[in-house]
Amino acid sequence: MRLQPSRVVEVLEKIVRTPIYSLVGIVGGGKLLVYSNEEGFASLILVDPGSGDKMRLTREPILWVAEPPVGASRVVYTRDVSGGRELQKLLYYDLSRMTEEPLIAMEPMRVFGVADDGVNVAFTGATMEDLAVYVAKGGSVEKVYRLPGLAIVSDVMGDLIVGSGVLSGNPLSMEIFLLDIGRGEFRVYTPRSGSVNKNPVIVGNAVVFESNALNPKRNELLRLDLSTWEVGSVRFAFKDYEEYAPVEHPLYKFQDNSWVVVGKREGRTRLFLDGRLVYRAEGVINGAVYNEGRVYLSYTSIRMPSRLVELNLDQGVENIILESRLPGDVEESFTNLGFTYVSSFDGVQIPVFYVESRLAGRPGPTVIYVHGGPWDEVDSSWDALIASLVATGFNVVAPNFRGSTGYGEDFRQLDIGDPGGGDLEDVASVSRWAWESGLADRLFIMGYSYGGYMTLWAMASKPDLYECGVAGASVADWEEMYELGDAIFRFFIETLFAGSRELLRERSPISRVDGVKKPICIIHPQNDTRTPLKPVIRFMSLMLEKGKTFEAHIIPDMGHVVNTVDDAMKILLPAILFLNRCLRKPYELTPP
User: Fold this and answer.
1) Active site amino acids
2) pLDDT recorded at residue 315
């Protein structure tokens, strides 16, 4: 069923304007600090857990926010000051004076991994020259250590800064680092050479981190004693956590003398307190804090944008503080939600989420949605792109191809040194499954960032599988992207391709334009510095020279990150209208 353009606009507006709430922490006065898009852009709000009353703090879009210490009177965050190029400055909101202030005077730079202990703010900063750890304190900032590889700060406590990354020169391993700024000492640690260790947090005189050093099939929580340098598994008072045996941990922290841990398996999460199961969300928990006997958490699901909940553990009472749901007509378009495994060309089992649309039917037009990253995943959480496709008449199949997170480090590492190889075959295998299972009668492919790359690559390499493709913020030429990138993205490409410059050329869509047979819609932010526009322009020029069918939408005043409602509409609207035109045979360039 094809929707008229006016109806498409109406449906998309409903979806992107449905508010989301993600819990960041708890600040002074017991108020909840929540990330939200309620005012049409990424902002911070305070929520009273008793009444649900909200107060917006930030008046302009933000990028990253540091979780504040419990009861803090300030909140530290970054803001892009470069029209989407991700050159950021650090600011803070003073909750005692209710004012926003610059944290420090600094030259804008790309920032990742902001951590705040209430006094020191540590972060990873990238320039064209290098990637380094910076510390902001007392109104000034200092570059304290130049990192030797792709690594990100995750926590700070006094003079100790910790983080993790690819620091041994082996792209298949990750190590944690410990930087003592008082002594000027930088130390790289791994419990086992070649293992993956990440996201360390400081707990007293120890560091706790995720690691596959003891169990290659899943990440466990390990504790490194900084006095003895002995390492062992974190043990909890209750056994629910061990019985669940999560593969990954989106969140873990020690609060109010208790361990708060979110464990994840097959795209869904559970919340544990000292190892006791206290919440089984229908989707994915994306924030949790524990304070004075109460747990506060936020979670989402594929068909529910967000819910903010208070758990009174003593009384066994759950109170919904805030909730956002889809409008009824949009929610009704979701029918069957499923999860399965599909065998790829070499027998590797590929986890797949799929959503059936009432408007599409079975079999019906189906979009293969390829996630970004590639070290990311499609899980059972809210995704405006998936919702937009379902609500406008498309079934959606989302493969977690090799290289995806959420299924163990062995699975994630299968993509390193082979992007555009086995992962493309995984996507193709899942696409064929969509036909064979009776879900699809026509196939399209769509993705953003690495998903945009995979769309271009599939349209050129598997041209008979798909009728059309939508490539958002894509990579057309890995070599040129490397030359245009700053230090963190050069490190990223070196790690992903395991240092092979020859593979950069071989796996670039610009080298395979001749293979394109079907129409492609290219949507690209003009100010994107992660996947720059310049190589995509060259790709389109070659498409034009060779008589290939495509349409292009260059989005001005926008970068790679979608952090406003308007940004989302600029990406989704041309994509959905293009796919609607693709439902007609042959494809029509002009709207009906």
Assistant:
1) 449, 528, 560
2) 74
